[in-house]
Write a structure and sequence with these properties.
The chain is about 80% helix and about 0% strand. By secondary structure, it is an all-alpha fold.
Length: about 120
Amino acid sequence: MKSSRLWSRVVLAGTMAGGLVLGVTGTARADRDWKEDCERRLNADRARIDRDANRHGERSHQVDNDVARMNSDRQWCRDHRADWDHNRFDIGIYFGRHDNDRRDDDRRDDDHHDDHHEEHH
């Protein structure tokens, strides 16, 4: 009888200890600092944007795709509560502002085309 009680206590103690270990490691994982991973992703995106802008031009579809990927990585950073250097990654071409410039250029081209078209009629 004493040995079965002893084994019951050992099993119970082991189970409790295992639960505590899992609880502590689960909390540690949840509190992980993702800032380095976030910065690594955004630096890779920035390098990709720079490379494609030099190869294909700032208004290329390659750069548009790279900026979309960077936006996706920004969302990943937000989801993991990791902040980044906004002054480095949320500016100019990296923020996709060239899309607005392209739309403005398209509107100017359309306006110019309409003006030119009206002169001939």
